[in-house]
């Protein structure tokens, strides 16, 4: 009898061939998309001619968060499990905004702050759903390799392309400015701690603070104006060397300029891939901050009193008119809309995307709530006022505090490795659009980098308020990527399909108005 193949086996073989063909096609589409984001000379981030990379070999950059290569526990076909996908989204969103959440809660009021964190998390999550589904609503076009800026270009033409580039640059440059301010802060306090320890100098803070081994200080009160992200001044007697050190080691006048010698050459490198190896430091830093907050709260105790609308010497009202300052910070704290498609397209079970994204947002919101609420509640009032909570809550701990010293070291090193990656992405996005080449010449790159670095130095020198910088940049880029574009695209797609209803129209117009009001309020309060 001749060799006989069962029809079921033929179907099975055909299905396997089709599956492999589809996977190869999808890989090629991803290569085509990401090759547009990379310089042809940068071989570390583009595919070799003879290799089809797995779709998990993708670099993802998050404003004010981390920059990392999307690669983890895959199933052998370049797909991630739901747990890995959830962790990557959490890791991407958890950025330096966490340092300003306690200050934001103080500005909004304790009860109002908790409510706003929950509501903003839900609203940004809904808008993130709209981003994820936006490309799937485009008929008769293969959008498997598209990112959200491509969707904006499809619906709004060149205006959508250039406006998305503009708001993306706002988020990136804003992140780099915040990084420069924080790196100056951490470097200053680290250098102060090391100098005092090496020389055996005992200094006395002239700022108000608590006594004991777990000291908390109020830097803003020493300067005679509301708390700002200013330097802590120390008092020393008959010590010329110490006075000379303080003259040349100043958080605003000197330290921001010292960073130029290290970071300007690093962001001018063609290949940033080496720095992506340190992305694990972002997770370690957040984990350590959570530990620090827990330990400090255990020693300081809880200090909360309810004053719903009236001012108090030591406590702030539960509801304050300054609440938009927190919503501006939260818009960026929950911002992942420009890279969420990349993260979710590697999920093994695409039908779980909504669930996994929701879980990730829940964990991010829980982390922000935990750090913000614990720092606010444990801040020792009295003797200090809650108004003393700084825009970077680590500034409420003196430079000789051991746990804060370790946190600053972690964050300083992490930011110095992420900063070149953010600079690379800013260079690729801007110069690629303007000149068709991410590295047109050394002069082009040097001028762009000097402008970005100059902005960081200027802010660290004259406006070192990370909460203010975060809320301005967050409300600006969030207006486009979180509120306006997802809502407009959803309404346009429904209108073209003849499915747009009045309730849907009213709801999404209201979302757009909220985003616009959020931006305007940042400049009024």
UniProtKB/TrEMBL annotation:
Domain of life: Eukaryota
Database matches in InterPro entries: AA_transpt_TM
Keyword Transmembrane set for record: yes
Membrane topology: Multi-pass membrane protein
An annotated GO cellular component: lysosomal membrane
Amino acid transporter transmembrane domain ranges (all copies): 81-190, 252-520
Compartment(s): Late endosome membrane; Lysosome membrane
Catalytic reaction annotation: L-leucine(in) = L-leucine(out); L-asparagine(out) = L-asparagine(in); L-tyrosine(in) = L-tyrosine(out); L-glutamine(out) = L-glutamine(in)
A matching Pfam family: Aa_trans
One MF term in the entry's GO annotations: L-amino acid transmembrane transporter activity
Keywords associated with the record: Amino-acid transport, Disulfide bond, Endosome, Glycoprotein, Lysosome, Membrane, Metal-binding, Sodium, Transmembrane, Transmembrane helix, Transport
Transmembrane segments: 83-103, 109-129, 162-182, 252-269, 281-302, 322-344, 356-377, 405-426, 438-463, 469-493, 505-524
Matches recorded under PANTHER family: AMINO ACID TRANSPORTER, NEUTRAL AMINO ACID TRANSPORTER 9
Similarity comment: Belongs to the amino acid/polyamine transporter 2 family. SLC38A9 subfamily.
Name of the protein described by the UniProt record: Neutral amino acid transporter 9
């Amino acid at each position: 009898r001749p060799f006989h193949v069962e029809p079921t086996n033929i179907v099975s073989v055909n299905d396997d061939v089709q599956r492999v063909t589809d996977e190869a096609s999808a890989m090629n589409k991803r290569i085509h998309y990401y090759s547009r984001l990379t310089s042809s000379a940068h071989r570390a981030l583009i595919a070799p001619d003879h290799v089809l990379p797995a779709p998990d070999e993708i670099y993802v950059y998050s404003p004010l968060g981390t920059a990392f290569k999307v690669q983890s526990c895959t199933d052998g076909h370049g797909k991630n499990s739901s747990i890995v996908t959830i962790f990557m989204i959490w890791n991407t969103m958890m950025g330096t905004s966490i340092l300003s959440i306690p200050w934001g809660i103080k500005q909004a009021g304790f009860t109002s702050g908790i409510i706003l964190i929950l509501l903003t998390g839900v609203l940004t999550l809904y808008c993130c759903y709209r981003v994820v589904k936006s490309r799937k609503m485009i008929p008769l076009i293969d959008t498997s390799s598209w990112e959200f800026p491509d969707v904006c270009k499809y619906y709004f033409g060149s205006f959508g392309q250039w406006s998305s580039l503009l708001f993306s640059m706002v988020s990136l440059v804003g992140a780099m400015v915040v990084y420069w301010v924080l790196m100056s802060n951490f470097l200053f306090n680290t250098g102060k701690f090391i100098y005092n320890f090496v020389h055996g100098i005992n200094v006395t803070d002239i700022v108000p603070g608590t006594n004991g081994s777990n000291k908390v200080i109020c830097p803003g009160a020493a300067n005679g104006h509301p708390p700002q992200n200013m330097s802590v001044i120390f008092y020393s007697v008959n010590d010329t060397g110490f006075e000379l050190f303080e003259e040349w080691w100043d958080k605003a006048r000197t330290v921001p300029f010292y960073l130029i010698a290290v970071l300007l050459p690093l962001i001018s490198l063609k290949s940033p891939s080496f720095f992506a190896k340190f992305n694990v430091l972002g997770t370690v830093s957040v984990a350590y901050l959570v530990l620090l907050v827990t330990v400090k709260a255990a020693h300081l105790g809880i200090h909360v009193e309810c004053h719903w609308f009236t001012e108090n010497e030591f406590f702030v009202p539960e509801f304050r008119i300054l609440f938009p300052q927190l919503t501006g910070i939260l818009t960026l704290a929950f911002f992942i809309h420009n890279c969420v498609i990349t993260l979710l397209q590697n999920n093994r079970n695409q039908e779980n995307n909504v669930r996994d994204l929701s879980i990730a947002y829940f964990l991010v919101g829980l982390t922000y709530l935990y750090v913000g609420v614990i720092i606010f509640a444990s801040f020792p009032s009295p003797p200090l006022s809650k108004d003393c909570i700084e825009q970077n809550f680590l500034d409420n701990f003196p430079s000789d505090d051991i746990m804060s010293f370790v946190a600053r070291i972690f964050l300083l090193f992490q930011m110095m490795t992420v900063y070149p990656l953010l600079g690379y992405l800013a260079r690729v996005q801007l110069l690629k659009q303007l000149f068709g080449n991410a590295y047109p010449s050394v002069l082009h790159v040097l001028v762009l980098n000097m402008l970005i670095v100059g902005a960081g130095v200027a802010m660290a020198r004259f406006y070192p308020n990370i909460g203010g910088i975060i809320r301005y940049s967050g409300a600006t880029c969030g207006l486009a990527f979180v509120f306006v574009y997802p809502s407009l695209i959803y309404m346009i797609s429904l209108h073209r399909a003849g499915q747009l209803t009045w309730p849907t129209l009213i709801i999404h117009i209201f979302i757009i108005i909220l985003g616009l009001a959020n931006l305007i309020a940042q400049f009024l309060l």
